[in-house]
Amino acid sequence: MQFGNNNNNQGNQPPRGPDGQPPQPPQQDWRRWVWPALLVLFLIWTLLTLPDLLGGRSGGGQVLISYSELFAQTEAGNVSQIIVRDANATGVFRNAVRIQDAAGQTHDYPSGTRFSVTLPTDGNEQYYTLAREKGAEVVFQQTEVNPILLFLINFGPLILIIGFFVWTARRAQRQMGGAFNFGRTQAREYTVERPQVKFADVAGQDSAKAELVEVVDFLKEPDKYIALGAKIPRGVLLVGPPGTGKTLLARAVAGEANVSFFSIAASEFVEMFVGVGASRVRDLFRRAKENAPSIVFVDEIDAVGRQRGAGLGGGHDEREQTLNQMLAEMDGFDRTESVIVMAATNRPDVLDPALLRPGRFDRQVTVGLPDKAGREAILKIHTRDKPLDKDVKLADIAKSTIGFSGADLANLANEAALGAARRNRKRITMRDFLDAFDRIVLGNERPPLSNERERQITAYHEAGHALAAVLTPNADPVLKVTIVPRGMAGGVTVFMPEDRGYQSESYLRARMVTGLGGRAAEQIIFHEVTSGAVSDLRQVTSIARAMVAQLGMSDAVGPLNFGDDERQPFLGYTLSQGRNYSEETAAKIDSEVRRLVEEAYAQTIQLLTQHKDKLEALAQALLSNEMIGQEEMYRIIGMEDKLAELTENVFRESIAKEPVKSNGSAPHKDETNAEAASAPKSVDKPKDLSLDLLDDDTPDKANLAGSPPAAPAGDQHTDPKPAKPSGPVHPLDRRTGDE
To answer: Is the pTM of this model over 0.70?
Structure first.
């Protein structure tokens, strides 16, 4: 079983159920064809039976004559029988007859020929008397109205209209995902008859599995706990960043306990009608109790479990009604009912306190990012069905993928397999993993810049980032530097920091110096700055403000925190937000932020000026090779002895492929398009994982966020117009995937 998979599925495997088997294709809904089929059958039946329903008028071989011709033939005694039906009559000629048609042509008919004629509306008594006198048999018949025909004439159109509207309404309902089945829960039940996921299929989460063993034991042997008067936790909340395997852990608990498993996303409770969410909650818990022992798993519970209060929806918000019903259902569990409610979220800070009190979700299990051993175990699971070459060392890959979640590692293995397939290889090599790492962290490679001046600016900018990091104590080590446009960036400096739970003041200052290295290099070499440092400035300012306003790293402001009350109203806290400090304090904070940034910039200018020869050498090497690995970079700047102090990383030399050369003069893409394409992806994701510590009260929550990254990915340098460049990149800034 793939680690880190949920309903969205990660890795290169198709979506699978908890039994490990691919889902069956949906069966054809035969009901959608009922009304069209009935309509077609009705039309066919009408066409076949209409002549009989209309009374069987006009048969074959009848001659149509006029009323005057009928009168003449009757006077001649040539009519043996006349049958009258309302205004129509049919009869039989006694002898052969010659009749002239409407076109003036004469036709001869033998004796016994049947004829039909239309009678006048009144005044026919004289003719009937004449016919009897001439020996003709006069028969009057009443037209019998078929009751079926009468019913269809009166109600047929109404039935067709109603049927058409019913058919279209049901078809629209199916297209809307069954919106009108609002009272029924959308939970999917995975019964015990199917093979289940076990704890052995979950890697990298040993501590979380250890906490869930007690839940499994209760589901297996509830009498043991009941006899001692113990109360097992009714709710277990799995908390952790995306892609760490929270959904998989819940399925593993159900598999180990061999019980029914109900899975539903919290967003599925709420539909277009008021009261739907509460109805679905009741239906879900009713089904769970009927199938006890069972597990109810609610994914992304923050969709309905956010803090109640004023907010933007008020007390009558449908989401709040759903939450109230869920709280009532969890309170209604009998101590002998073996039903466990599990939920997953990556936003525990927005959950309503009533959900977290004892008796509800009173046990929280942290599902964090895996360590080195966990990453290696996850890689083994994701590569067990993939043919690996002998040079692939999963232990080295695990050591070099700090901060990767299970979903990230699944994506890495999948990208490596795709790369091997593109090269028509039979086995996945280490080269494929190296290229997959670059593809995930840096993005897809784009054609190089055609403007030689922009290439030079980019080279010196990236060289400034890298050199500032190498020369600054406590800075994150540089993994590689490139001026080849990757993804949304025009140039990238990649850092790979070590695992750390705390961030010291010296480390944060080193990050500021590193982030300002690109702008300082531009100032030193070109005596002007470009728009390429806009994202660097944003990142550096964010770090400085956090140091002053939240971490108490400013003597002028003191050990105070001013950021806790500025929470967004959209998260369910308050209708408005305000600052918990005065204008004077705000001015002091701004002044301290400016001082920290200016000190860092002055330090960066001084550092790069003293080592301008190294800056020139590194930039020229980038212009020649366009990508430089860690070892080559240290050799270029003459600091090979520092390599021994760095942590081994298999991705630092992922430059074996031939670099893309650019002569700097050949015409290429339109420069404006190149500038627009170089806008960094991370500008839309300003969240910096290194600041997770700043938003929490305990170091444990900082560990949950993973290692601190450097600034967002890539740089772009353009002279003609401002762009959205960004600075150094850390792989954690590009994490993707769901739990």
So the answer is: no
